[in-house]
Amino acid sequence: MELEKRKEVDEQKWVYDSSIDHKANIPLRSSTGVWKAAKFIIAIEFSERLTNYGIATSLIIYITKVIQQDLKVAARNVNYWSGVTTLMPLIGGFVADAHLGRFYTVFVSTIVYLLGLILLTLSWFLPSLKPCNEAVCHEPRKVHEVVFYIAIYLISIATGGHKPALESFGADQFDDDHSEERRKKMSYFNWWGCGLCSGVLLGVTLIVYVQDHVSWGAADIVLTAVMTMSLVILILGRPFYRYRVPTGSPLAPLLQVLVAAIRKRNLQCPSNSAELYEVPKSQMKRGRLLCHTNKLVFLDKAAIVESTEENSAEKKNPWRLQTVTKVEELKLILNMIPIWIATLPFGICVAQTTTFFIKQGTTLDRHIGNGFQIPSAWIYGLSPIGMFISLAIYEKILVPVLRKMTGNERGVNILQRIGIGMVFSLTSMVVAAMVERKRLDLVDRNPLKGSLTMSVFWLVPQFLIIGLGDGFTLVGLQEYFYDQVPDSMRSLGIAFYLSVVGAASFISSLLITLVDHLTGKAGRSWFGKDLNSSRLDKFYWLLAGITAANMLLYVLLAKRYSYKKVQRNMAAADCNQGDPVASMA
Asked: InterPro entries per the record (predicted)?
């Protein structure tokens, strides 16, 4: 009894979750991690999102006005850039988990980010790189276009390391085995969303205002200064962080499980899962043991101990024998694939906000007050405002009420939260289709003035609704992919979340190309040279139909999904009863 009490006091003082402090010692709970460290990381996220959205929001306007590309070509190029930006984290997340570690991945990525921003600034101010020397540019220089694309793709590569490593580094500051810190981590993802929204809001208002009323180059200087400050903040927080040591490739053990299972394909799985091979918890150097599940039972064969493997030498061959925990980690990844696919239509809807939604704003009356004309990209600011509202309602009202009703620490499970956001994205596409139809009717009635008699505030509902959905689905996806991946893959987990939006951007581009080709063959393409000669309303209805059909599939998958179950003690019954971490998901 005395020994257990002493152990409990020791665990309250020190953090035994495989973390180390900046001096490579076991972290002291009172002086590291939790909000002491997370506030630095959320501030860095604010800076990065301000910079990223300051560029991304006006990208289609820059490409059509300065580089002078057609609308459909510009939309395709923006989607390609967005796709690369959100798929690159798959590489960055792997590097962070396997080699550099999360802190140093963020550090290196910030340096690359700054190089891209400096090049972007030079492309506007250096005479040899400027679009042209005349006040009115009829044909921009090719060299400017080349340097511009190099700069934004450098930023894209930097985001690939920065995003997955930073968010997972922030979540690492909370100990999953400490009940108080575990609950704080649930709030962390919501506060992370608030920091993200604040950065986005300033990016699409303040930075876009500078781009419109001062110059693109002046905005680039501001963004460079912001990212420089984020680097300073990252370094200042170093004594307060908890660090995870890279453990090598997290993908190799997954492949070993598959190979071992195939080698033993002719063996019969034991009826009692306790007969499968597992390392005793007392011998675990780092990480947590997972409970056995009855799904994908073929993979369990990798943990069958044959008579020839009874000696320790045979057991050391990971290509023939793997632990139950490693088998369950592969099951986790395989179970995520259908969920990842089912969230793609949501990502396609989100992709429209930075392309067609903003371009719609350029065709409407943007005057308010005494003749002040708001930049068209400002309307995008309603999306993060909607996200703010939904996060505040979820964190302060829904979670406390639903905790009492369901007994679930999260209020609702993660996949339910994601599904709620999908309903909002569907509604947003329906509203966008109706608003665009009204705009086109005005163009038909008065081709001379077009839709300039229609206020830009008609776009408020579609931006606000999709922002409300983001507070549920985007934050839910972040938490889902961080929480449900193996502990050694958490940067990659955030990359999986980002890849939803990235893959969706590519699919959106392919969908535009396909619809353009098919409708063009039928007589009139839905995508003309400008919005007035296009039929975006029909495209939005198509997306609404795809999203509605997909939601039926998603509900089915969510009902059948099994969450990660972590062993809390050495008793086998612990797994059978269900883990607290698993049940709160």
From this structure: MFS_trans_sf, POT_fam
Q: What are phi and psi of 455, to 5 degrees?
A: -70, 145
Residue linked to tokens 């506060």: 191
CB of 455 closer than 8 Å to CB of 364 = yes
* Position 296, amino acid: L
Distance from CA of residue 94 to its chain's centroid?
15
Give the contacts of 299 (CB within 8 A, at least 6 positions apart): 257, 258, 261, 327, 330, 331
Regions in the chain scoring below 50 on pLDDT: 3, 313, 570-574, 577-585
So what's the pLDDT on residue 333? 92
State the DSSP code for 456: G
Residues 322-351 as b or e (16 or more Cβ within 10 Å = b): bbbbbbbbbbbbebbebbbebbbbbbbbbb
The Cα–Cα gap between 128 and 135 comes to 16
Using alpha carbons only, what angle is made at residue 559 by residues 332 and 421, rounded to the nearest 5 degrees?
Answer: 90
Q: Are strands 19-20 and 243-244 parallel, antiparallel or unpaired?
A: antiparallel
- The torsion angle over the Cα atoms of residues 325, 329, 335 and 338, rounded to 10 degrees, is 180
Per DSSP (E only), the strands in 96-155 are none
- pLDDT of 180 reads 80
User: Do residues 117 and 229 lie in contact, with contact meaning Cβ atoms separated by under 8 Å?
Assistant: no
HEC per residue, 357-382: HHHHHCCCECEECCCEECCHHHHHHH
Bridge partners of residue 373, in order along the sequence? 367
- The rounded distance, in Å, linking the Cα atoms of 63 and 67 is 5
Residue pLDDT, tens place only, 404-441: 888 777 778 889 999 999 999 999 999 999 999 998 88
Residue 528's contacts (CB-CB under 8 Å, 6 or more residues apart) are: 71, 534
Beta bridge partners of 64: none
Q: Which residues pair with 566 in a beta bridge?
A: 290
First to last CA, the chain: 32
Residues 6+ apart with CB under 8 A from 227: 47, 48, 51, 110, 113, 114, 117
